[in-house]
Design goal:
mainly alpha, two-stranded antiparallel ribbon, Multidrug-efflux Transporter Regulator, Chain: A, Domain 2, 121 residues, single chain, 6 helices
């Protein structure tokens, strides 16, 4: 079925591109939404874990019907806030040698003479 010249002009005249230009509305950049499976691969976790985090509101997403839609920025923020897997490492504190610390305190207080053994003079 061939279109007549009037129909062609009307179709071209009211194309979306033309309407956007006419209304001065340009395409809005929207981020691509991720599914639960895509977010799970991004986080290197299972789909059940991602659903659990969405249900607990630790990972933010939008539920559209029965499907979750997750923004990539929210996945990145969750990655940054998540603690690393495994047992936490112990923080080693640098403790000064006790004997040298006591000797330094005695010298500073001037009590070295009083703490000498009685047998020696």
């Amino acid at each position: 079925m061939a279109l007549t010249s009037v129909q062609k002009r009307t179709a071209a005249h009211y194309s979306r591109k033309w309407l956007r230009a006419r209304a001065n509305i340009w395409a809005v950049e929207r981020p691509r939404l991720l599914s639960v499976a895509e977010a799970a691969t991004e986080l290197k976790a299972s789909r059940a874990y991602v659903r659990r985090m969405l249900a607990r509101q630790r990972l933010y997403g939008i539920k559209v019907g029965s499907v979750w839609a997750i923004f990539p920025d929210d996945v990145e923020a969750f990655k940054r806030s998540r603690r690393p897997a495994g047992r936490p490492r112990k923080v080693l504190e640098i403790v000064p040698d006790t004997a040298s610390a006591i000797a330094g305190e005695r010298a500073h207080a001037g009590t070295r003479r009083m703490l000498r053994r009685r047998g020696r003079r």
